[in-house]
């Protein structure tokens, strides 16, 4: 009998609502915890392969925006007591460490199942072996039943029953400097769900004051239900109505592909919708049924996410000079009358770029007919202003 009503994720969000991280961080941390708890115990048959509900999630926001606070609550308070100790890999996971870990698991005939948690994505991907690590994690995202790896030293690994979940955090600034457009739209980062927020839902100076008996009781209920969910095994089914609605959406899904930097994400959204549906179904009950209500909720969550997702990559462009284009455009659009003086823009961004860089940005925006340039007179001086086109 489940204790969390109406479902596990909503109860988790209610349990954590008197903390400072944005609600979106808590929601997707809860989904990450569920995905890790399921391991390879539940799946959806997809013809020639099994779809497991594992997720690679990155919480993105400005420095000091409580990203790791949200993730720590999920990992420390809920996942750690449920997941076997050796399946939680924290901090910096190099490719050599993972090869060794997978090799030992395979030798002992244990499933190659783990959750990688890193409070800083740059610590995870900033190593000298980044390419090898990225290749490994990209290949294993599909949770293969069996796969082989050959290392540079000649060691061969036969990996069995793989499932990797990943939860990490990053700032938009690091994504700008630490990734390229090819990496964002390509295989590895295209498998991530990016949860971006730059405004908080609350500002609570003393969250400990809200740890009432009722809130603590919710935590107990969440943990009890999670322990029950960890025991479940089986196969999900999709109702006929849900199938029909998914077919309609799938046939028209490319209409959503409106940002080249997120092509990798959108290209895999078909499976992501189903992964999310499995997690939302198990969050509600143990019937292992995906109906049209669950499917609609999955689409709703992803649409909410997509509204702000591109904000995580405003600086990720092929030309380093143009990485500030969206920043400048945003400053112009928020200025009174959608018009900003050149001197004002340079004053705001003195620590980012100079006038030569601004000239290139402005030229690009003018040539794409996004803004126009005009001269105004202030006192005895003439000032150049940039204004949004109607």
Structure description:
The protein is of the alpha/beta class and 390 residues long. The chain folds into two domains: 8-311, Rossmann fold; 320-388, Winged helix-like DNA-binding domain superfamily/Winged helix DNA-binding domain (Arc Repressor Mutant, subunit A). Helix content is 46%, strand content 18%. Strands 4-5-8-3-9 form a five-stranded parallel beta sheet. Strands 2-1-10 form a three-stranded mixed beta sheet. Strand 6 (146-150) and strand 7 form a beta hairpin. The longest helix is centred in the C-terminal third of the chain and has 18 residues, at 292-309. It is globular and about 80 Å long. The N and C termini lie far apart (58 Å).
What are the key terms here?
five-stranded parallel β-sheet; Arc Repressor Mutant, subunit A; alpha/beta; three-stranded mixed β-sheet; 390 residues
SSE topology:
Elements lengths: L7 H8 L7 H16 L3 E4 L4 E2 L4 E5 L6 H16 L5 E3 L4 H13 L4 E7 L2 H5 L4 H11 L5 E5 L5 E5 L1 E9 L1 H7 L2 H5 L6 E5 L16 H17 L4 E2 L1 E2 L1 H12 L11 H5 L1 H16 L4 E2 L1 H18 L15 H10 L4 E3 H7 L6 H13 L3 E8 L2 E8 L2
Parallel strand pairs: 1-10, 3-8, 3-9, 4-5, 5-8, 11-12
Antiparallel strand pairs: 1-2, 6-7, 13-15, 14-15
Helix pairs in contact: 1-2, 1-9, 2-3, 3-9, 12-13
């Amino acid at each position: 009998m489940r204790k969390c009503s109406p479902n596990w994720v909503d109860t988790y969000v209610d349990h954590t609502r008197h903390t400072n991280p944005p609600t979106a961080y808590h929601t997707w941390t809860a989904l990450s915890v569920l995905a890790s708890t399921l391991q390879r115990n539940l799946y959806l048959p997809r013809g020639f392969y099994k779809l497991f509900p594992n997720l690679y999630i990155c919480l993105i926001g400005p420095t000091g925006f409580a990203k790791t606070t949200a993730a720590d609550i999920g990992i420390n308070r809920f996942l750690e007591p449920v997941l076997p100790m050796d399946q939680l890999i924290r901090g910096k996971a190099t490719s050599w460490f993972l090869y060794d870990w997978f090799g030992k698991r395979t030798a002992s005939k244990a499933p190659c199942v783990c959750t990688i948690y890193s409070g800083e994505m740059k610590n995870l991907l900033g190593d000298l072996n980044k390419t090898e690590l990225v290749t490994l994690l990209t290949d294993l995202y599909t949770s293969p039943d069996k796969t082989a790896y050959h290392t540079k030293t000649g060691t061969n690994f036969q990996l069995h029953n793989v499932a990797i979940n990943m939860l990490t955090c990053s700032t938009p600034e690091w994504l700008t400097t630490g990734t390229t457009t090819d990496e964002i739209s390509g295989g590895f980062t295209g498998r991530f769900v990016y949860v971006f927020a730059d405004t908080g839902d609350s500002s609570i100076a003393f969250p400990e004051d809200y740890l009432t008996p009722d809130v603590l009781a919710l935590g107990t209920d969440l943990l009890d239900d999670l322990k029950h969910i960890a025991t479940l095994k089986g196969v999900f089914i999709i109702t006929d109505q849900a199938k029909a609605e998914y077919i309609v959406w799938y046939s028209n899904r490319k209409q959503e592909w409106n940002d080249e930097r997120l092509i990798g994400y959108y290209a895999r959204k078909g499976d992501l919708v189903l992964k999310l549906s499995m997690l939302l179904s198990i969050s509600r009950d143990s019937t292992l049924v995906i109906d049209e209500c669950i499917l609609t909720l999955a689409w709703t969550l992803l649409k909410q996410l997509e509204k702000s997702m591109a904000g995580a990559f405003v600086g990720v462009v092929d030309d380093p000079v143009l990485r500030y284009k969206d920043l400048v455009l945003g400053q112009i659009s928020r200025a009174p009358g959608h018009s900003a003086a050149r001197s004002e823009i340079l004053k705001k961004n003195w620590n980012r770029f100079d006038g030569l860089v601004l000239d290139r940005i402005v030229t690009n925006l003018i040539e794409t007919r996004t803004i126009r340039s005009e001269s105004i007179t202030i006192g005895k001086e003439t000032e150049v202003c940039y204004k949004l086109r109607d």
